Amino acid sequence: MAKTVRFHELGGPEVLKVEEVEIGEPGKGELRIRVDAIGLNRAEALFRAGFYFYQPTLPASGIGYEASGTVDAVGDGVDGFVPGDAVSTIPAFYMNEYATYGEQVIVPAAAAVRRQEGIDAVTSAAVWIAYTTAYGMLVEIGQIGAGDTVLITAASSSVGLAAIQIANHLGAIPIATTRTSDKKQQLLQAGAAHVIATEEEDLVTRVRALTGDGGVELAVDAIGGAGVHTVVSSVVRGGTLVLYGALDPSPMPLPFADDGRGRNIRWYYFAELTLDQPQQLRRAELFINAGLRSGSLSPVIDRTFDLDDVVEAHRYLESNAQVGKIVLTVRH
Amino acid sequence: MAKTVRFHELGGPEVLKVEEVEIGEPGKGELRIRVDAIGLNRAEALFRAGFYFYQPTLPASGIGYEASGTVDAVGDGVDGFVPGDAVSTIPAFYMNEYATYGEQVIVPAAAAVRRQEGIDAVTSAAVWIAYTTAYGMLVEIGQIGAGDTVLITAASSSVGLAAIQIANHLGAIPIATTRTSDKKQQLLQAGAAHVIATEEEDLVTRVRALTGDGGVELAVDAIGGAGVHTVVSSVVRGGTLVLYGALDPSPMPLPFADDGRGRNIRWYYFAELTLDQPQQLRRAELFINAGLRSGSLSPVIDRTFDLDDVVEAHRYLESNAQVGKIVLTVRH
């Protein structure tokens, strides 16, 4: 029996229950992992509430995409992992099939990566969604290079901070947005070249001033809603806006820039890379591990909670008070 | 004095008036053209009604992007043209600055191209908006190649027919849509590999069947509105939808495909190429002239009207009864 977070109805953080569940043995192509730490993501809050783009399988659903720990059993047909290996999970599955919030979890072996030497369990649990998402948007789709400017909205999220680091790693110029000045210093310390407080300054005017009137080559936006029009108007003609979230639930019209000229608009979901594109995923792993080794990529951890306090952790996740990742830790 | 079409108020076709206007001499960098034929475009109907993305300068506005004719005067600083040259215009200006509906018109020399040998005046007036728009979408943005499938909505428009021909020219497979079966045979004769009547068949089902379930690599859509969701769901994961019109005035939500995976969405306006990108325009000219010479590109002319019948011609333009281009002819 192992402590496992499950929910039996859709709703707020309070629907999450810590239950003792028999985990069993890993099947063909699966690993069982003794979990040390679990990274939290907004996708999980949406999934719990029934607002994610696929639905949990009730009456009892697990939850979670990210964990770090140690392999403790290996299913048939799995090459390359043995019990005792330190691993992290990448989000290469659906949460109604596999889940990571628990002391012991089973995941597909294809969703496990070896942990880098010298990176602790909490940090290892905070890497893979944020950095594969940011890598996919900035490198595979945006193809940004040195000297390009990148606008990053909701920049204090774990994906936003990963995007800032990847932009800097490549010699590009990250411009971060945040609603008020409260998080400005933290974002500058996290590597943003410029920070724009969108409730206090005009986004398009600031971006044009910073880019010599042209706009950014790439914008990555987690907010969506009616504000997309402003974001797209901050992009240079022919540049790209990648949308990867819809924190603002207001209707999102197809955004045309004021000048009548086109921009590329791309909806992005991390599983495009982690599930659909094995070669992209392999490149992402190499890129991210290289950055972790050199230290140029380094997840920002905002706060940790004990697994037993998962309800409180989800409340904090939805408060938008954090800068960086929230992680659950598991005491053994 | 020369017959010139002008309008003094926004409205339906009837606001267009044929008036005698003194044209004067071409200024610096301009040509004066004795016009033989004038290609009509939906952009002009929108401009006349006040629905285009820029407004006419009233109380008297000219209108028109395309004409073919003969240079009859050359302004200062113009190289490469002399009186007597047979030319056509490309839409490299705004209609509140220059216009082409008239017996004699002045345009920027940068908006003139030499007519190909053996191509008559009516055909020459029907080339440049349709083929530069289709070329920009299929070649410069879509980068389609042999074997790719391309979905072309509202395919009986002049741009739609040009897109069919360019797809065939490159060894790609054009799938045309039209509302009912009425124009099906004409579209097959015009080169469509497949025709889907969208009011009689399910677009996504047909496209998936034709493409082995994946969807098309590129869709070019002039319709927009709520139907964009269906068009985007006909595009393969990671493929591209280029929107170049909004014939359907219903709200156009940012379209996400049902599977949660991203597609590239691109608003396109022909002046991105003809006004903003001289190198793309040069490539477009070479590409289109090569196709005109070999005959693989050949504008479809639906019907011609006399310049005096411009009101009737605009009514017909807005009837959606045509397959291909409507052209005004000028008697001298």
TrEMBL record, chains A, B:
InterPro entries attached to this UniProt entry: ADH-like_C, ADH-like_N, ER, GroES-like_sf, NAD(P)-bd_dom_sf
Originating species: Kribbella orskensis
Keywords of this entry: NADP, Oxidoreductase
Name listed for the protein in its UniProt record: NADPH:quinone reductase-like Zn-dependent oxidoreductase
Domain of life of the source: Bacteria
Cited SMART domains: PKS_ER
Residues annotated as signal peptide: none
Pfam families to which the protein is assigned, alphabetical: ADH_N (PF08240), ADH_zinc_N (PF00107)
Keyword Transferase set for record: no
CDD domains: MDR2 (cd08268)
Residue ranges of every copy of the Enoyl reductase (ER) domain listed in the record: 11-328
